[in-house]
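Priority: medium. Attachment 1 of 2:
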């Protein structure tokens, strides 16, 4: 035992002085490490983007070069010079981006309006993945903040060093590309860099850790609030009136994204009717960028101005009138639409691919007319079409995720080994998928790249899997292809009338042929698909589902051929549509895959008011849902833990924790310990009771002197409340425990009971010290 200056006995223990300064070298390393974590946060977001569009190795190499350059120049140039170099690097990078996006080199440095338009669109919620030249944009974006942050950090300017990285991360939060955990990691690293820098400069101590924890908790709350700044809707604004988990909700739940999920269902309810003298698939969406688990439409939408671009070759036209039978957030058309008519077209946007979409959902009964081009897609002509593709087509419709496996490429090459032309490759892939895979709505989404999983591992799937895989296989073979969603022709109820239901939702492939345009291929097996759809409609009718029919269709028997692709007719050759009116091309001119006028500039961005931006497809797959819930729980747990630490640190910093602990200790002794320790603790509790009733004990007073002084004060003041005589017994136990030979268990317990009784009674302490 050792004795302190007050005579109190205590154990010899090893303690850390909270005011002892931490080593400056260690603090500096921690500050620099935080800057690197901040840099890694926003670079990781950019890396995920380049893994989809290509260029991840270039990005990492560029980041490495910037870090090395900053390290070499940290002690040789001034901060102002470093800032100028960073700005020059950013200017060169974005000039390269603008030239890649189609702006002429001679006007790059005067194209401030184009760059400003892109920046505004991104800052108001446009994901970078939707930009046509997303990979080039990341290479232009990364160098300046990486170089400047690391340069300033190495010079000890940590507060300024986190500013470029913080702006970079904040911008990616606004675009919606930075997730919650990445945002938290980056913001906490920024606060850590500033905090450790302050410790290094002022010789701070670990006693200030509670203040840092409070700052961390505050910045977490601020970082989470930033994610609600963009005008991003919380749910689908243009969702087809289909149940969550239906095929419709998966493939066409937003204008910019088309999801890929696991198990889905089919809705038998009628969505729209079409009056047309030609059977067709009814297209609702075109997507050109594959991320591995979803499709994205890139490019800019524009308001419909009375005419759409034409396909490149000769064509005839076909007319349709489409009437919504339920609230409809899409605008089905027969490809390739040339013009639209009707009141709804005054509020219609058109994608870069020429696909219209209403800016507000169509109400039941609303209708519009469509004039579409029908091209001659004769197989012989397609075989002879050649490979003289426009640059705009090859730039945007040959994309595959950068991490596509060699096994996928090799298997694709085997399947197309006997094919000499793009048409023959498309026909070979279409035939292989139809004959080797079964149709089923009950599947589990594979992890990672869905096209790879379906081709190499799965035995069955539905249209999304077939179309996605065929598109990616064609691209691996250098054949431009894109993923398309919509509906099959539906049930024909009259010579020129078709009823289209939710169970007709479908996805297919469009392949580009020079001088023809985009031609439809459908790799999904038609027979088994029709069986499933027929069973679903028969079940709905048997159950009396009135929404499954219109007045014109309720008495029409189900025709198993309704909605079937002409190409799936076993009497027709694979890949050669029996009705050439149904496969349509694209527009000519400088942008063959553009659905707008040829002279319409395309910066690869969407306007800030582009409706329904960044809305994911809905999935009902139990595995995917489980993983999603786990992710939510993980993020919520991390945020909750940080919040608790912040609250605890704040309570300690303000003294609230100490006051709470002492307040509780007055009324509850706690768990029993050694008798001497319990006797001492009982007196400390009594001391706090007396401090409330009379005054606190002064630092110079012994325990007995304190009680004697309180007794003397009572004698002088007639109105004073007398002390309870039992306090003398508590004092004696305390003195024997601290200064004497100790107390017995019974004596300690009796002292505890006395204090418990005085505390719980909340009555004045009676009696006088004798």
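Attachment 2 of 2:
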């Amino acid at each position: 035992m050792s004795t302190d200056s007050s005579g109190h006995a205590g154990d010899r223990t090893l303690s850390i002085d909270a005011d002892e300064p931490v080593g400056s070298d260690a603090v500096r390393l921690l500050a620099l490490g935080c800057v690197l974590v901040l840099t890694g946060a926003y670079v990781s977001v950019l890396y995920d983007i380049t893994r989809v569009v290509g260029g991840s190795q270039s990005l990492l190499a560029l980041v490495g070069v910037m870090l090395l350059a900053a390290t070499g120049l940290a002690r040789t140039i001034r901060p102002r010079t470093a800032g100028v170099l960073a700005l020059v690097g950013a200017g060169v990078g974005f000039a390269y981006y603008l030239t890649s996006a189609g702006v002429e080199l001679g006007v790059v440095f005067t194209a401030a309006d184009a760059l400003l338009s892109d920046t505004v669109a991104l800052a108001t919620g446009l994901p970078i993945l939707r930009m046509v030249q997303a990979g080039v944009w990341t290479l232009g974006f990364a160098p300046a903040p990486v170089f400047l942050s690391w340069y300033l950090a190495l010079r000890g300017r940590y507060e300024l060093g986190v500013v470029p990285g913080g702006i970079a991360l904040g911008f990616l939060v606004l675009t919606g590309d930075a997730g919650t955990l990445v945002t938290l990691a980056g913001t906490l690293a920024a606060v850590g860099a500033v905090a450790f820098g302050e410790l290094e400069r002022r010789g701070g101590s670990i006693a200030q850790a509670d203040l840092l924890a409070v700052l961390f908790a505050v910045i977490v709350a601020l970082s989470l609030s930033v994610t609600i700044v963009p005008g991003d809707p919380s749910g689908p604004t243009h969702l087809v009136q289909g149940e969550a988990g239906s095929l419709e909700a998966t493939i066409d739940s937003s204008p910019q994204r088309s999801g890929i999920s696991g198990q889905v269902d089919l809705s038998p309810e009628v969505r729209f009717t079409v009056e047309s003298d030609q059977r067709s698939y009814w297209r609702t969406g075109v997507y050109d960028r594959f991320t591995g688990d979803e499709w994205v439409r890139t490019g800019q939408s524009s308001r419909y101005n009375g005419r759409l671009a034409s396909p490149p070759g000769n064509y005839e036209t076909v007319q349709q009138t489409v009437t919504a039978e339920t609230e409809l957030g899409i605008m089905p058309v027969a490809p390739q639409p040339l013009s639209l008519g009707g009141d709804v077209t005054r509020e219609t946007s058109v994608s870069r691919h020429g696909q219209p979409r209403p800016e507000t959902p169509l109400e039941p009964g609303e209708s519009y007319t469509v004039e579409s081009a029908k091209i001659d897609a004769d197989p012989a002509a397609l075989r002879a079409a050649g490979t003289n593709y426009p640059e705009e087509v090859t730039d945007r419709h040959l994309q595959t995720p950068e991490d596509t496996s060699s096994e996928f490429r090799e298997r694709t090459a085997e399947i197309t080994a006997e094919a000499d032309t793009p048409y023959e490759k498309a026909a070979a892939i279409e035939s292989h998928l139809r004959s080797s895979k079964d149709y089923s709505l009950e599947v589990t989404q594979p992890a990672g790249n869905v096209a790879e999983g379906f081709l190499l591992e799965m035995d069955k799937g539905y249209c999304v899997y077939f179309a996605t895989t065929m598109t990616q296989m064609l691209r691996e073979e250098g054949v431009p292809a894109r993923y398309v969603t919509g509906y099959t022709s539906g049930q024909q109820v009259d010579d020129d009338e078709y009823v289209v239901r939710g169970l007709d939702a479908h996805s297919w492939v469009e392949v580009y042929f020079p001088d023809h345009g985009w031609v439809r291929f459908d790799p999904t097996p038609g027979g088994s698909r029709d069986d499933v759809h027929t069973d679903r409609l028969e079940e709905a009718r048997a159950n009396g589902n009135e929404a499954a029919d219109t007045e014109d269709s309720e008495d029409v028997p189900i025709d198993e051929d309704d909605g079937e692709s002409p190409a799936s007719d076993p009497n027709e050759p694979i890949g050669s549509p029996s009705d050439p009116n149904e496969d349509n091309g694209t527009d000519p001119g400088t942008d063959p895959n553009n659905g707008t006028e040829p002279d319409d500039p395309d910066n690869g961005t969407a306007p800030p008011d582009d409706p329904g931006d960044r809305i994911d497809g809905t999935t009902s797959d139990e595995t995917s849902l489980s993983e999603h819930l786990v992710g939510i729980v993980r993020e919520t747990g991390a945020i909750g833990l940080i919040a608790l630490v912040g609250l605890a640190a704040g309570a300690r910093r303000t003294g609230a924790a100490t006051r709470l602990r002492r307040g509780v200790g007055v009324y509850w002794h706690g768990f029993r310990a050694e008798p001497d320790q319990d006797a001492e603790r009982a007196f400390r509790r009594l001391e706090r009771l007396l401090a409330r009733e009379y005054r606190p004990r002064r630092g110079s007073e012994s325990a007995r002197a304190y009680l004697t002084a309180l007794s003397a004060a009572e004698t002088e003041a007639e109105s004073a409340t007398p002390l309870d005589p039992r306090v003398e017994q508590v004092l004696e136990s305390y003195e024997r425990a601290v200064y004497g030979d100790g107390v017995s268990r019974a004596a300690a317990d009796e002292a505890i009971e006395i204090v418990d009784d005085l505390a719980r009674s909340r009555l004045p302490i009676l009696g006088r010290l004798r």
